[in-house]
DNA sequence: CAATACTATTCCAACCAATGAAAGTCGGCT
DNA sequence: AGCCGACTTTCATTGGTTGGAATAGTATTG
């Protein structure tokens, strides 16, 4: 044997090749490995996806489980825990708006019996906060907790139109992402559309791909007059005409806004008259 | 001057009195400071409630904000972020059951126009996963994301009745907590009630305090036959008689169970016959 | 307007919690 | 029995973490 027996002492313990990421970030990255498709994961899967050695993952996961951010199933796999959900339910832009909006969404849903959506903007995407759907009714669209592009969805356009100018420009500068099923608009048309949305309080999008549908969305304002959410209805193309839906959607959105403390002006583009 | 000038060197930097809590735990404790009443907090508030020095809190909060677990408002305060809500929406026992149950809850709500609740058990309490309420209708009860006691609520009794024997005993051994507005039952009566709940699939509770209401709850089973949630309806006392509500609640709960892959047996307490 | 009180942020040297290779354990499969 | 994969425990090393102190910013008060 060419192996050196050396001594009884452990050869090379604690020899970290090198690292350098805050522990908190690592812990959070362990939460981030979960997704719509990955709702229950084993230790080794989590370690692999999060890019860290199993022992490290185990140690961090143990803390997360102890707190309730994760739960362990009988088969040893981990899932997101109720405790995390509980804290998350305090998110003003998550459950916050939802809580206030829900009764109004229900009314709209009950009358129309079509998908009713509520979304907020997170960075460059829309996040679906709520979706009411009759169990029998129409096709699927987006999942609650899921994300949707800003430029090619009705809620996205409403949120984009309500964002600050600087952000809008940044988005518009980016090349379109060619969302399948939605005709992508050239930049100029997007600008005109956003302007229309601001003026009319309504965005409309036709998509063909998951199925032929029409979405009509309207902005929800907070007390400061900022657009905090977008409310929309999704109907099969050809069922109810959009111009019939628009007033209902707009009225519902305004009702929610009012409950958020927003005092609607006569119309945003009429204010300039008062300057004369 | 009795003060020792000593040298120019910094006197006593980095002199930690001592500590010893995992960083992850500290970060999580910063999430835990949020509550129904505290949805937006300043740095110093968070540091105070979490019991740590401001610089430490700031450093950890910075990581949480970077990831999206927290968001910073214009006024400098922090709130729970949408990203956290997004991950939490993957919680099987949180949004998971909710997603499946919602259409059925809506049906029940639409027919009755009374509060419809969905709850799961987390440790020794019930956590409210969903609540449908008409905006005009009745008084408030519990908040979505909030907690309710097991022994003195209808959903709680259902969840307790469906828990494993060992856990039930542990709860029963504890002295009752004297929930105001609910007549507290002696241990024997609780046992009988739990037995009844298992047999009939219905729990019923009258409370007087937030207002005079009757709650009727029924268990939701998963594919393995475990009770994973409780579904209930809350009506003003004296409106609809409970025995009229029970079938509707039970039917809704069974519909949800079926969608979770549960194959209902004829009746749990009849199975013994097949042994003959 | 200075003084006071508070919160937020930056700095940094000491140090302890975090680290991960290695080894041990468990369970399944051949 | 032997192999393989996932999970868990151990432990010497060390770099990320720590919090007092200093600084900057903000609101309140005399």
Could you characterize the architecture of this molecule?
Two copies of one chain form a homodimer. The first copy, chain A, has nine helices and eight strands. In chain A, 41% of the residues are buried. In chain A, 40% of the residues lie in helices and 18% in strands. Mean pLDDT of chain A is 86; it is low at 1-17 and 268-276. In chain A, the strands form two sheets. Chain A has a six-stranded antiparallel beta sheet, sandwiched between helices. The first copy, chain A, has a two-stranded antiparallel sheet with strand order 1-2. The first copy, chain A, is an alpha+beta fold. In chain A, helix 6 packs across helix 8. Chain A is globular. Chain A has helices spanning 23-32, 43-50, 54-67, 82-88, 92-112, 154-162, 165-173, 187-200, 242-259; strands spanning 70-72, 78-80, 115-122, 125-132, 147-149, 203-207, 213-221, 227-236. At the A-B interface, helix 1, helix 3, helix 4 and helix 5 of A face helix 1, helix 3, helix 4 and helix 5 of B.
Which strand order do you get reading across the main beta sheet of chain A?
5-4-3-8-7-6
Tell me the number of strands of chain A.
8
The topology string of helices and strands of chain A comes to: HHHEEHHEEEHHHEEEH
Radius of gyration of chain A: 24 Å
Helix content of chain A: 25-40%
The major β-sheet of chain A equals: 6 strands, antiparallel
Q: State the assembly state of the protein chains.
A: homodimer
Overall pLDDT of chain A = 86
Strand content of chain A: 15-25%
Q: Helical region count of chain A?
A: 9
Give the helix/strand class of chain A. alpha+beta
């Amino acid at each position: 044997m060419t192996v050196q027996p050396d001594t009884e002492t452990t050869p090379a313990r604690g020899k970290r090749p090198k690292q350098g990421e805050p522990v908190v970030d690592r812990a959070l990255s362990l939460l981030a490995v979960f997704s719509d498709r990955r709702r229950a994961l084993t230790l080794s899967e989590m370690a692999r996806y999060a890019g860290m050695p199993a022992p490290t993952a185990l140690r961090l996961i143990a803390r997360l489980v102890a707190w309730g951010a994760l739960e362990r199933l009988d088969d040893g796999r981990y899932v997101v825990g109720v405790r995390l959900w509980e804290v998350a339910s305090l998110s003003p832009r998550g459950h916050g708006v939802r809580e206030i909006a829900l009764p109004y969404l229900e009314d709209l849903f009950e009358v129309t019996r079509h998908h009713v959506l509520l979304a907020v903007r997170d960075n460059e995407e829309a996040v679906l906060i709520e979706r009411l759907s009759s169990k029998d009714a129409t096709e699927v669209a987006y999942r609650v907790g899921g994300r949707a592009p800003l430029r090619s969805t009705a809620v996205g356009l409403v949120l984009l139109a309500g964002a600050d100018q600087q952000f809008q420009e940044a988005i518009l500068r980016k090349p379109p992402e060619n969302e399948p099923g939605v005709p992508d608009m050239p930049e100029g048309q997007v600008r005109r559309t956003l302007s229309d949305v601001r003026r009319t309080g309504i965005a409309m999008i036709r998509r063909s791909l998951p199925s032929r549908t029409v979405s009509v969305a309207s902005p929800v304002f907070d007390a400061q007059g900022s657009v905090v959410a977008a409310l929309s209805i999704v109907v099969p193309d050809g069922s109810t005409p959009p111009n019939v839906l628009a007033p209902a959607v707009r009225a519902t959105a305004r009702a929610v806004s009012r409950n958020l403390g927003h005092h609607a002006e006569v119309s945003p583009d009429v204010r300039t008259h008062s300057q004369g």
